Amino acid sequence: MLVLENVHTHYGKIEALHGVSVEVKRGEIVSLIGANGAGKTTLLMTVCGNPQACSGRVLLEGRDITREPTAQIMRSGIAIVPEGRRVFSGLTVEENLHMGGFFNTKSEIRESLDHVYHLFPRLKEREQQRAGTMSGGEQQMLAIGRALMSKPRMIILDEPSLGLAPLIIQQIFEIIGQLREEGITVFLVEQNAHQALGLADRGYVLETGRIRLHDTGKNLLNNPEVREAYLGG
Amino acid sequence: MAAENIKHAFFCAVITLIIAYPILGLNLIPSGAVVSLEGADGSTIAAIIAAAVVVFLFQLFRDSIMARLGFLSRVNPLSGREPMPQHKRARLESWLLTGIIVLALFWPFFVSRGSVDLATLVLIYIMLALGLNVVVGLAGLLDLGYVAFYAVGAYTFALLSQYTGISFWMSLPIGACLAALFGLVLGFPVLRLRGDYLAIVTLGFGEIIRILLNNWTHLTGGPNGIGGIPEPTLFGMEFGRRIKEEGNTSFHETFGIAYASEHKVIFLYLIALVLAVITALVIRRFMRMPVGRAWEALREDEIAARSLGLSRTAVKLSAFTIGAFFAGFAGTVFASKQGFISPESFVFLESAIILAIVVLGGMGSQIGVILAAIAVTILPELAREFSDYRMLVFGAAMVLMMVWRPQGLLPMRRIHIELKDQG
C-alpha cells in the first residue's frame, strides 16, 4: 500500500531522515514509535510531500508520489489526522466534517457523514457546536472523523493520544481497531508505545532519523531494548 | 476594592477632562496669516468640570448603581425570548434587504445633490470593503495594499478613455479583469507568506503601484493626474447639457424634460447601487460555494486544510483575484464619478480605511461590512460640527468600538446552540 524506500529528507542543510525504509501492507495497522525528535512527524510529512524527500522513493499503491504536490497526494485515497488535531475551531462539527469530504459528491458526503456519526455518536450530539469549544477527546474524534470523510483506503494518524485522558485514549484506540475491520489500512505514529504496539500488526522503531528495529507488534512489546527505552523497563 | 474604585473613578474623570476640554473648549481663531488658540469661556469650563464630576461619581458608585439597574433587564419583555429560528431569520433578513434596496433606488429623487454624491461614495466603499472582505475576512490574508487594485481599475478606465475613447460600460469589465490579473500576479510571490510578512509585501505592492503612477509621467500624467474622464451613458444618452461625443443623444432631450445637473449624479448613484448589489450577491454566492468554504478552512488552519487535499496555491490565488476584481469595479466607478484621478486618491490611508471598515464590520460578515462602510464614510461628515476635532472623534469612536466589540459590528454568523442548564 505505502512503501518508503531509502528516504532521505532535509530541512535546509540538516538531514532529518537518513535513509528510512518502511512498508505498510494493505489492511494492516503499522505503528511507528520513537522519542521526541526522532523524525516521526518528518517521515509523515515526507509521505505528504511537504517537505519532499530529496532522495529515495515513496510509493502509494505502486505509484511513485515522491515528487507529487501535497494537494494531489492527499486526494488519492490517503488521509492524515495531523498532530495536535487541528480541527477548524471556528466552524461547527458538521462543517468540519463537510470540509473532509471536500472533493466528494453530495451523496458520498451524506453517506460518509452517517458512517462517521455511527462511529462517533458523540459527534452527532455536537453537530452544531463549534469545534473549538469541544474537549480534546471530542476534537480528536472530529479530526479522525474528518479524515474518514474522504473515504480513504489508508489513514495516517499522528499522535492521536497526545494530551488525552487514559480513558479517551482507550476509546480512540478501539476506534482505530474498528477501522482495520472495515478494511482501512492504518499507519499510526505514537509516543504512547505500549498502546500503539499492542494494537499494531507490525511496528517500526525510529531513532534519530534511522529505523532501529522492525518486528511484529507483539515481539517489539517483549523486546528488552524497546521495553528499556520506551516502556519504562 | 474601595481604593481601587476611587483610583479608577479618578482616572475616568481625568480622561473626561482631557478629551472634553480641547473639543469643547479650545477654539482656533484665524487672524490674518497666523492662527491663535483661544481658551474656553467660563460657562463651558464649568460644564466640563461638572461632567467630570458626574463621571467620577458614577464610576465611584458604579457597582451599586448597576446592581440597582439590574432589575431593568428583568422588566424587559424581550430578554428571555428564544432566538428566532434559523430559516425564519434568514427569510426576514432577505425581505429586509430587498426593502432597503428598493428604498435606496427611490431615495435619491427626494434628497439633495450633496447627499446623493456622498451616498455614491459610500457605495464605492461598500464595493471595496466587500472585495477586501474576501481576502482578509474570509481567506484570512492580511492585505495592506488593496488600494492598488482600486487604482488599477480607475487608471484603466481613465487611460482607455483618454487614448482609445472606450466608454464606461466597456471599461468596467476590462478594468475589473485587469485588476484581477494584478491580484493574480501579486498572489504568486506571496503564496508562501503569512501574517506580518504578507502584510508588508502587500503594503509594498500598493506603494509600488502608486509610485509608478506618480512617475510614469508621459503615460499617466504623473502627479497631475488624468482629467476629463467621461461619465457613463445610458444606451448612448449623455447626461451633460451638451453632447460631447458624436452619435450620442442627450438624456434630457430624449425624454423632453428640462436639463438638470442632478440627473447625472443620480444616474451615477444608481449605477454604483446596482454594481454594489451585484458585488454583494456574487460574493455571497462564492461564500456558499466550495471555494468559499476552502477560504475559511485556509484561514482557520492552513495545515489542516492542506491535509485535506486543498491546494494552497489555488485557494489563495482565487481569493486575491476575486478581491481585486471588485476593487477594479469600484475603481472604474470612482474614476467616472470624479472625472479626474491622480495618485493622491490611492494612498496608503485608503487601504487602511478599507481595512478598518472590514475589521469594524466584523470579518467575513457581509451585512456588518456594509454597515461599517456606511458608518465610516458618513461619520466624518456628521462630525463636521466638531470641525478640527472630527478626526479625533472618528479615531476615538474606532478605539471604543474595538474595546467593546472586538468581533465587529455584526460578526459573521455561525449557527450555534447554547445549552440551557439542566439544573
TrEMBL record, chain A:
Gene3D superfamilies linked to this entry: P-loop containing nucleotide triphosphate hydrolases (3.40.50.300)
Cross-referenced Pfam families: ABC_tran
Swiss-Prot/TrEMBL GO biological process terms: amino acid transmembrane transport; L-amino acid transport; neutral amino acid transport; organic cation transport
Keywords (A to Z) from UniProt: Amino-acid transport, ATP-binding, Nucleotide-binding, Transport
MF terms (GO), sorted A to Z: ATP binding; ATP hydrolysis activity; branched-chain amino acid transmembrane transporter activity
InterPro entries found in the cross-reference section: AAA+_ATPase, ABC_branched_ATPase_LivF/BraG, ABC_transporter-like_ATP-bd, ABC_transporter-like_CS, BCAA_Transport_ATP-bd_LivF, P-loop_NTPase
Keyword Membrane tagged: no
Residue span, ABC transporter domain: 2-233
Family the UniProt entry places it in: Belongs to the ABC transporter superfamily.
Name listed for the protein in its UniProt record: High-affinity branched-chain amino acid transport ATP-binding protein
Protein source organism: Marinobacter persicus
High-level lineage: Bacteria, Pseudomonadati, Pseudomonadota, Gammaproteobacteria, Pseudomonadales
TrEMBL record, chain B:
Keyword DNA damage: no
Membrane topology: Multi-pass membrane protein
Localization per Swiss-Prot or TrEMBL: Cell inner membrane
Pfam family, one: DUF3382
GO cellular component, one term: plasma membrane
Membrane spanning stretches: 9-30, 42-61, 94-112, 118-139, 146-163, 169-190, 197-213, 265-283, 314-334, 346-379, 386-404
Keywords: Cell membrane, Membrane, Transmembrane, Transmembrane helix
Chief localization: membrane
Domain High-affinity branched-chain amino acid transport system permease LivHM N-terminal intervals: 5-107
Entry protein name: L-leucine ABC transporter membrane protein /L-isoleucine ABC transporter membrane protein /L-valine ABC transporter membrane protein
Organism encoding this protein: Marinobacter persicus
Lineage: Bacteria, Pseudomonadati, Pseudomonadota, Gammaproteobacteria, Pseudomonadales
